């Protein structure tokens, strides 16, 4: 396999499982040094498979000093950071009538503020270091709006606006900012859905199946590498054609 990221260092938030873990693996397999930041204090067992070029640091993306210290750890270990993947996310689904203010705030905090914090910290560092690539995790829920997800759809649509605004602000420093919008992807986040709901969703997917975390990670790889050197402020849907 060709190495697209040899010598580069990437930080992936929410990389302990699911799409973040698959992204860490794919970027690592393309030669990158990988730093995973996740909310767990101790390094999760899933992350003990990287033999080298890997660092785990506990990090809460809603807290700017926590993300700054994740960056400091990455720079101390590998000398610099070239790629930031703002992937951490949560769901707290409920109809608007039943959703609590706390559930709304939690989702906006992690999924929207967390991406803003990660983009701000990464851009400030990359401005001084000569450039970089930032990839933000949105969701098709932000494009179409999902029943029971007024909090999540709002946050994920917000990630698109944030990505475009940030791309305009930092292009002059050689920093590109793009977003990925996954559809239904098999991860611990979607494991909780019943078979019946999955079947109903799959009927809406032209490719006729859920996606894998690795298929999303490959889209992140595109934005993280020079393959996308003339691409910024865009949103790539990885949905099997759902809601095209
Ligand atoms: N799975 C899907 O179908 C799907 C679809 C569209 C978008 N997404 C988005 O992709 C991203 C990854 O989703 P996933 O399915 O892998 O979810 P997941 O629940 O499997 O993994 C999310 C990770 O984020 C971490 N995390 C949560 N809060 C955090 C915080 N405050 N700080 C740091 N880390 C935190 C969790 O510990 C976990 O490791 C999320 O942003 C999600 O919204 C997922």
Characterization of this structure:
The protein has helices at residues 18-29, 64-78, 101-129, 141-144, 150-170, 195-202, 213-224, and strands at residues 9-13, 33-38, 54-58, 83-86, 132-137, 175-182, 185-186, 211-212, 235-238. The radius of gyration is 17 Å and the shape is globular. Strands 3-2-1-4-5-6-9 form a seven-stranded parallel β-sheet, sandwiched between helices. Strands 7-8 form a two-stranded parallel ribbon. The protein has a single domain (9-234), classed as 3-Layer(aba) Sandwich (Rossmann fold), CATH 3.40.50. It is α/β, with parallel strands linked by helices and 244 residues long. Helix 6 links the parallel strand 7 and strand 8. It contains seven helices and nine strands; from the N terminus they run βαββαβαβααββαβαβ. Helix 3 runs parallel beside helix 5 (150-170). The protein binds nicotinamide-adenine-dinucleotide. The site of nicotinamide-adenine-dinucleotide has 29 residues, from helix 1 and helix 3.
Quaternary structure type = single chain
Instruction: Count up the helices.
Output: 7
Roughly what is the average pLDDT, rounded to an integer?
97
Number of domains: 1
CATH architecture: 3-Layer(aba) Sandwich
CATH topology name: Rossmann fold
CATH class: Alpha Beta
Strand tally, please? 9
Query: DSSP strand (E) fraction?
Result: 15-25%
Give the ligands present: nicotinamide-adenine-dinucleotide
Q: Order of helices and strands, N to C?
A: EHEEHEHEHHEEHEHE
Share of helix among residues?
A: 40-55%
The value of Rg in angstroms is 17 Å
Shape: globular
Largest sheet: 7 strands, parallel
Main-sheet strand order equals 3-2-1-4-5-6-9
For the record, give the distance between the C-alpha atoms at the N and C termini, rounded to a whole number: 31 Å
**Structural classification:** alpha/beta
- Ranges where pLDDT stays below 50 over 5 or more residues in a row are none
CATH superfamily: NAD(P)-binding Rossmann-like Domain
């Amino acid at each position: 396999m060709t190495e697209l990221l040899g010598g580069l260092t990437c930080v992936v938030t929410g990389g302990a499982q699911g799409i973040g873990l698959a992204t860490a693996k794919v970027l690592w397999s393309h030669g990158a040094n990988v730093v995973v930041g996740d909310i767990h204090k101790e390094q999760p067992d899933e992350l003990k498979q990287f033999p080298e070029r890997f660092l785990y640091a506990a990090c809460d993306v809603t807290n700017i000093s926590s993300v700054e210290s994740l960056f400091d750890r990455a720079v101390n270990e590998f000398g610099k950071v070239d790629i930031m993947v703002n992937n951490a996310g949560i769901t707290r689904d409920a109809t608007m009538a039943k959703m609590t203010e706390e559930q709304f705030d939690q989702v906006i905090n992690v999924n929207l503020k967390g991406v803003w914090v990660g983009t701000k910290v990464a851009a400030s560092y990359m401005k001084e270091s000569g450039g970089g690539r930032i990839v933000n995790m949105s969701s098709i829920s932000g494009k179409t709006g999902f029943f029971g997800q007024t909090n999540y759809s709002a946050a994920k649509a917000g990630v698109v606006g944030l990505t475009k605004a940030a791309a305009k602000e930092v292009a002059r420093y050689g920093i590109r900012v793009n977003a990925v919008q996954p559809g239904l992807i098999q991860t611990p986040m979607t494991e909780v859905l019943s078979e019946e709901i999955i079947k109903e969703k799959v009927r809406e997917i032209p490719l006729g199946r859920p996606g894998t975390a690795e298929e999303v990670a490959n889209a992140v790889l595109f934005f993280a590498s020079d393959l996308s050197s003339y691409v910024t402020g865009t949103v790539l849907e990885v949905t099997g054609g759902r809601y095209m």
